[in-house]
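Researcher: I'm preparing a figure for a lab meeting and need a structural model of a single chain. I don't have an experimental structure, so a prediction will have to do for now. The sequence is pasted below. Please return the structure as tokens so I can convert it later.
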Amino acid sequence: MDATKKRVAIVGAGASGLTACKHALAKGFRPVVFEAAGDGVGGVWRRTLASTRLQTPAFAYRFSDFPWPADVSGAEVFPRHDQVVEYLAAYARRHGVTECVRFGCKVLAAEYAGVPDEEAAAWERWSGNGEAFGDGSGEWLLTVQHPGSEATQIHRVDFLILCTGRFSGVAHTPTFPPNRGPEVFHGQVLHSMDYSNMGHAAADELIRGKRVAVVGSGKSAFDTVAECAAANGGRYPCAMICRSGRWMVNGGFVWGVSLGHLFCNRLAELTVHKPGEGLALALLAILLTPLRWLLSKLAETYFKMQIPMEKHGMVPEESFAGSMSGCRLGVLPDKFYDRVEEGSILIKRARSFSFCTDGLVLDDDDTGERVDADVVVLATGFRGDQKLTDMFVSATFKQQIVAAPLYRQCVHPRIPQMAVIGYTENLTSIYTFEMMAKWVAHLLAGAFRLPSVVRMEASAAEWDEHLAMRRHGEGGGGKPCLGGVSTWYNDEMCRDMGYEPRRKKGILAATLVSSEV
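Model: Understood. Here is the structure written out token by token.
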């Protein structure tokens, strides 16, 4: 196969799209990357709050072959969003990815041509023969809108890689009974996505000198509240409306030990159940459950000592280990609880909320507490599934992409010649994206063939059942996360590609050091 003659398209130039392109280039392909933004690579990192930082230390969030600059590589350094953008841009320049990106080009639709949907659905092997390009008769037709024009153009490609992410594009917003929603509010209501996209100067102008209420308890909610409090102080306190607390920590270490060493290595994964683990490992996980409970309690005790969450009623109901497994751990903004103490942040716990003319009503629509506001920011998550469904022309593919899980978190068993990278995340997502990109590049190069559709669906369903147990929390009903089984996942990917999973030298290193460090 002449890789240079195969047309590969990648949608998105965020972290997942960049590494997908890099690894496709390494296998001899010449992919085209369509990026809707016209101002550079970096994805959501280019459109975020001024105060946003990485949620993991720099040493744990990096591509395997591209270290951070020396000034941002310390163990306790959480790089700023602009430093992340520059790191991703430098990675793209280093590996020749930038030349492949077509900026300002938005993919509006993707249509598979070659065989009818019904025939593709009846295949016993993915793409007909288990190979990336099938028998060569199928192709994708991409409708692309180019910069500075309303006109569109059709691009034909042999393989499509979607790297559109989960945290942009389609906002998840609550629904309300009649006369209880934003329509009755006399102020301004916007989603945190729109607030982030405004630009730093416009966002500051929106909130300065205003009574702001932020709904949500995730990272974007904490960051937005912190920005509002810094802008307005105690004169116009920012109200944070949340259903429950969230584990927001002030560092990546517990009594000097990295969280990765406690929860993200082979030893830690022996304490949890894993997809396809077998009887022996299942019994071992049961026996080691007290060890996981102990590690979780040690972490909880440490952070409760460090952060006054108990004093302000923000102790999470979920265990720390559960938060790690579900990718619901965040880094607390600087001086957050100092601003709570000084009165520039007001924390309001509520099971529900609705709107009134001058703000919000908490819990009960008639007698509940009222929160006056001029601006309400809904930090209520995103609908990553809708971004995927909106991409397809085929009604069958629209239904299939969300109705059934992805094999190896990358390939849908019933949708040919297409992969998704970055939909499933991890605590150190960039490494997971890189592993997915390597796997897809090997598939493109013919290094392995996929099993039967039946086997793919069975494996994907088993993984989905496992991940579903950790898929809950505020905002969009949760998200698939490999937090508790990332090493197990990496091992499967390595075996597919023909590599030895245990790559570290020495038993202690292989057991105690995270595979993502």
